[in-house]
Amino acid sequence: MRVLAAMSGGVDSAVAAARAVDAGHDVTGVHLALSRAGGTLRAGSRGCCTIEDAMDARRAADRLGIPFYVWDFSERFRDDVIEDFVAEYSAGRTPNPCMRCNERIKFAAVLEKALDLGFDAVCTGHYAILRTDESGALELHRASDNAKDQSYVLGVLTADQLAHTLFPLGDTPSKALVRAEAEARGLTVAHKPDSHDICFIPDGDTRGWLADRVGTATGDIVDRTGAVVGSHEGAHAFTVGQRRGLSLGVPAPDGKPRFVLEVRPVSNTVVVGPKEALATAEISGDRFTWTGRAPAASEFPCDVQIRAHADPVAATARLDDGVLSVRPDIPFDGVAPGQTAVLYDGTRVIGQFTVAETVSAVPVLSVAARP
Questions:
Q1: CB–CB of 315/304 below 8 Å?
Q2: Sign of CA dihedral 205, 209, 210, 211
Q3: Which of 289, 58, 86 is nearest to 200 (CA)?
Q4: Which architecture does CATH list for 2-184?
Q5: How far apart are CA 152 and CA 324, in angstroms?
Q6: 49 given a catalytic annotation
Q7: Cα(191)–Cα(187) distance, rounded to whole angstroms?
Q8: CATH assignment of 216-273?
Q9: Residue 13 annotated as binding site
Q10: Is 125 marked within a binding site?
Q11: 10 labeled binding residue
Q12: Residue 117 marked ligand-binding
């Protein structure tokens, strides 16, 4: 089988490519150039897709004896990931750029180009497992190493994409074993730090990065009754559940910390309240996909994960008139519109949707009803 190995320059993708070679596939390595900032260099474990990463990927490919290319996807990445990230924050939502990158770049644009060039599959270093059910259909499952499981960020994949994807690391019990294997193979990336944070914001200053692109504008911070309790320099800098960075001039009546409950971009207003008000009784959205076979019933039990490293929560999902809604058995702790909810059946990924609406589990007290 002709396999295109997506090589980020890290240890995971290098070992995944090596295992694809060992499996007897005709492997070609490719590194994605996602930034046109030619002088960009990696800073420790921050950032990725840099010149340094490209060179590391090339050295790994040379060691494996496979052809290697660099594909320029910088314009597509800018349009589909970076601009989407800015637009979502500007609209008061909290996006996950890794989900968008997997959905629109790595498993859409790259896979499409690979198939056009005659490749049969794309191989990546993600930690997830592909299995075949009784009917022969492919399923996406959590990785053996729960600490490294990346099935959440792969929840955007469709059945057709799964049919042309390989995840050679999914059954590996630990990342330490991957590093040991890389060292044994003579790969120089064996002990390279993992990348963290948003790759196009390597210094980690998301608020400053957004301010440069969206600008600043003074607005009010209000409590749940609408009373002004502080001010800010741009609603885009806040997300639901945030505690730090709030300039509150009026303390809470009970003296407890307050958290961001809602971001209203039209009025440039941020709503804050007590931690218990973050409890979310229901989430819903109409941008959903199924990972493999679709559920047989319009209402079904599932586990739901709302962040990459969050614990799954038992819930009931319902599809009604093109809207997928989820009611957890125990309220979620703060969900922001724009987040991705991934649905599971045990270890199997059912599908995902982008959260558009949330319902609080704590009713709002009117001004008149306040004690």
A1: yes
A2: positive
A3: 86
A4: 3-Layer(aba) Sandwich (3.40)
A5: 18
A6: no
A7: 9
A8: 2.30.30
A9: yes
A10: yes
A11: yes
A12: no
Correct CATH for 278-360 of 3.40.630.10, 3.30.565.10, 3.40.50.720, 2.40.30.10? 2.40.30.10
Domain ranges of the chain: 2-184, 216-273, 278-360
Task: Name 280's bridge partners.
Answer: 332, 360
> If DSSP codes are grouped into helix, strand and coil, which group holds residue 340?
strand
335 is in an annotated binding site: no
Is 32 known as a binding-site position?
A: yes
86 is in an annotated binding site: no
DSSP assigned state of 43: B
> One-letter amino acid identity for 369?
A
Sole residue written with tokens 């295109």: 4
Please give the chain's pLDDT, 371 residues, in tens: 999 999 999 999 999 999 999 999 999 999 998 876 544 444 444 455 678 889 999 999 999 999 999 999 989 999 999 999 999 988 888 888 888 998 899 888 999 999 999 999 999 999 999 999 888 889 999 999 888 999 999 999 999 999 999 999 999 999 999 999 999 999 999 999 887 668 888 777 888 888 888 888 899 999 988 999 999 988 888 889 998 888 788 878 888 899 999 999 889 999 999 999 999 999 999 999 999 889 999 999 999 999 988 999 999 999 999 999 999 999 999 899 999 999 999 999 999 999 999 998 876 544 333 33
Q: Tell me which amino acid residue 307 is.
A: R
State yes or no: is 199 an active-site residue: yes
| CB-based contact 338:94 (threshold 8 Å) | yes
Its pTM stands at 0.89
The catalytic position among 49, 101, 123, 302 is 101
Which is catalytic among the residues 48, 49, 199, 302? 199
